[in-house]
Every structure is written in structure tokens, then in C-alpha cells.
Amino acid sequence: MIAIIDYGAGNMKSLQFALNRLHLDSRLTVDEKTIKESEAIILPGVGAFHDAMQSLRLAGLPEILQSEVKRGKPILGICLGMQLFYETSYEDGNWEGLQFLEGEVKRISDSVKVPHMGWNTLTKHQDAPLLNQVDETDYVYFVHSYKVVNHDKKTLLASTSYGGEIPAIVQHNNLIGMQFHPEKSGAAGLQLLKTFGEMIS
To answer: How many other β-carbons are positioned within 10 Å of the β-carbon of residue 90?
Structure first.
């Protein structure tokens, strides 16, 4: 079972629908016992970084997630959920993230239209099992105004280009982040979720 962290930051139903299509059992939850009994965790999210962190803290989730990270459980962060993995966000202030990965979250360059909303291809930076079935001609769907910067380059699996390089997929051991929405990215997104499911088993 995959625990989808349901902390009020996004439409969880479309994600759960995509997982159901792949025959991956999932549960929307903030219950500590359910999270600890899960085989993997997905942290989705849309909206403001600070509001999301406040919601996580009110539910006592940062400590639970930290414990599961240390146990080596696969954890996937999607869109804002990926950004929350990092140390600091400068979205309307200076806010502390979950501190799982080195890096900061800053606004996309004003040289392009913000928010970044639409379909982009991925540029692979290294070979990884997660990308085995993904082609650089595949398009995935982005909706965001902020991106990760000053990150550990060794964690970067794939990027896209929009006003500069945008980390699109990152991985460090059991932590995986996707800046785009795989559940809204057609066949390519479903393939990535399927591969994540295979990594669990």
C-alpha cells in the first residue's frame, strides 16, 4: 500500500485515480500508523510553500516523514511536494523546508511567463532505473512558479528548460522528486508512476 499524504495541499483524487489505473493500492492519510505500515509514501502538493509546511507541522508529519526517510522507505514528492524536500524556500519570505535534500527553492526567471504552465520534454542527466522507460521526446505537464536551485548535481536525473534549467526529476537513495505532475502527464507520467511502483516491490 502507498500512503498519499493528505494534508490539504492539492487534488489528491487525480493522483489516486492514476495509481488505481496501474493497480497500485493507495490510501489518502495523515495517520501515523497507516504511514508507517505503508510500503511507500507520496507527498503531493500545489499552492504556497509556507502554507504547506504549516499544514504538515500541524499534523505532526515532518517527524514521521523523517523517520520513514531514515528507514529507507521509498518516498516520492510531486510538484510542491518535491520542493518541500529541500532546505529553504524564498516564496514570499524565507521558509524552512523538510531539510531532506540540499538546495533552495526560488522563483523562475521573469524572462519567461510565470507560472510555468504546460507540456515540456525532459533532458536526462544520468542513467537511472526510474528513467529506463522514459524517452527524451516524451512530454510531461508542469504547473509551477518556483524551482529548485543550488542543489546537489549528483541527485539530478532529468531537467527541462524554461527561463533556464529546471530540475524535473531528482533522486537521492529512497527520495525521489518530480517537479511536474506525473498523474496529469499521459502515458509518460503513468510509466514513471508504474516504475516507482515496481521499485517498491
So the answer is: 14
